[in-house]
């Protein structure tokens, strides 16, 4: 067993760190306040190859491993989780699923531009009445011979209005329950496809979250991913990798809040000393550092299992569960360490605390991760 990152990992980490400081940090407070999508920053991330990190170069990707992906997610999320969720969804829920399960024609048409960062994608599973209970899909895709007729509503869709390519899960044969669900590639602009208003969120406010409405959208048969009825397994298998991305996002949010707290504690004076001289603060920093290190090891382990083609569902859920709980605890403590300054926007930690909350909710709540983990444990 060895814990060192490779030279390549270290270089990727430095590149992501530099990008976060020079491109994401300026304007992050304003984007959060005004719910402004980081369009220019995402375009640059695409140019750097960070939107198709794990896709093979044959399909326009960077051919990197999942550990590199985790590293990049951590570094970007230290500064701007609204930008990093775009990176996570595009890499894990869109590109990965297409590379692994779509056919050659679909790869050429949809994966290549997504992996090259020319366009971005969205993954559409959640519905007004199907969130955690993902098998209860109400959106229907009726088989009309040469096409599916798509009807229904999707909720909480990241990249809702900015995406060009949408992977939509829909029920074709309700009598088969989850085995009657299909995953369809839907293009922006298809007749009958409309985007609802932007959600006004607690956190990750720069990201673009919408409901989507489908009314008699004709989706060509050749846009179905995999065999008839493969859609639910597609969604679950894709979400496994997504959970590594969100775990790493949570890790980054925690690490960002910790680094700001450490710096503040060394500078801020109280009772004739720096905060860092006070044991009450030292203990908080010690707990933060320990939990962050544990979260990082869980993220890297899940990524390593994925890179080595070993089962990683349980490891990904463990990483997401622990890292997201760590993000929440750490950011709350970071605000506490900053005192009144922690409560205002200029010091960044209040935003990190708001952003942390979503990591316990999306791509499976903490309760869903516990279901996945306990099923494996009890097998
Ligand atoms: N890979 C492949 N197949 C899988 C799988 C996996 N990881 N997990 C389950 N399946 C298959 C099972 O084998 C089963 O198929 P068969 O019956 O044919 O064997 C089928 O899926 C149903 O599985 P379960 O019986 O386990 O289903 P369940 O109803 O008990 O629930 C669940 C499973 C884990 C709770 C699941 O519903 C789940 O993960 N829910 C959460 C959904 C979620 O994460 N939503 C996030 C939305 S996406 C998002 O947030 C993106 C964003 O924009 C940021």
UniProtKB/TrEMBL annotation:
Coiled-coil features, chain-numbered ranges: none
Transmembrane spans: none
InterPro entries, per the entry: Acyl-CoA_DH_CS, Acyl-CoA_Oxase/DH_mid-dom, Acyl-CoA_Oxase/DH_mid-dom_sf, AcylCo_DH-like_C, AcylCo_DH/oxidase_C, AcylCoA_DH/ox_N, AcylCoA_DH/ox_N_sf, AcylCoA_DH/oxidase_NM_dom_sf
Acyl-CoA dehydrogenase/oxidase N-terminal domain span: 6-118
Boundaries of every Acyl-CoA oxidase/dehydrogenase middle domain copy: 122-217
Annotated family: Belongs to the acyl-CoA dehydrogenase family.
Identification of the protein by name: Acyl-CoA dehydrogenase
């Amino acid at each position: 067993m060895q814990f060192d990152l490779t030279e390549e990992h270290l270089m990727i980490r430095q590149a992501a760190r530099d990008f976060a400081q020079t491109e994401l940090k300026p304007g992050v407070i304003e984007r959060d306040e005004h719910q402004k999508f980081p369009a220019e920053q995402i375009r640059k991330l695409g140019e750097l190859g960070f939107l198709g990190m794990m896709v093979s170069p044959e399909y326009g990707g960077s051919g990197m491993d999942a550990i590199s992906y985790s590293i990049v997610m951590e570094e970007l999320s230290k500064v701007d989780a609204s930008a990093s969720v775009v990176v996570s969804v595009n890499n894990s829920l869109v590109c990965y699923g297409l590379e692994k399960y779509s056919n050659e024609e679909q790869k050429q048409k949809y994966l290549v531009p997504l992996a090259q960062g020319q366009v971005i994608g969205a993954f559409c599973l959640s519905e007004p009445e199907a969130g955690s209970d993902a098998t209860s899909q109400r959106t229907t895709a009726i088989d009309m011979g040469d096409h599916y007729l798509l009807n229904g509503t999707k909720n909480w869709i990241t990249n809702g209005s900015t995406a060009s390519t949408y992977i939509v899960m829909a029920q074709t044969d309700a009598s088969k329950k989850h085995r009657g669900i299909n995953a369809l590639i839907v293009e922006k602009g298809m007749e009958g496809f409309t985007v609802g208003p932007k959600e006004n969120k607690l956190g990750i406010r720069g990201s673009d979250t919408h409901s989507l409405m489908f009314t008699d959208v004709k989706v060509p048969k050749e846009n179905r991913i995999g065999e008839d009825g493969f859609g639910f397994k597609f969604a679950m298998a894709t979400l496994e990798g997504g959970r590594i991305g969100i775990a790493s996002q949570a890790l980054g949010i925690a690490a960002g809040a910790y680094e700001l707290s450490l710096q503040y504690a060394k500078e801020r004076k109280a009772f004739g000393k720096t905060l860092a001289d006070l044991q009450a603060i030292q203990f908080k920093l010690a707990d933060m550092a320990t939990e962050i290190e544990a979260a990082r090891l869980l993220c890297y382990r899940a990524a390593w299992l994925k890179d080595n083609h070993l089962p990683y569902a349980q490891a990904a859920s463990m990483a997401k569960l622990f890292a997201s709980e760590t993000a929440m605890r750490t950011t709350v403590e970071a605000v506490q360490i900053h005192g009144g300054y922690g409560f205002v926007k200029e010091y960044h930690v209040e935003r990190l605390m708001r952003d942390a909350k979503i990591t316990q909710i999306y791509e499976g709540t903490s309760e869903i991760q516990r279901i996945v983990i306990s099923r494996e444990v009890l097998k």
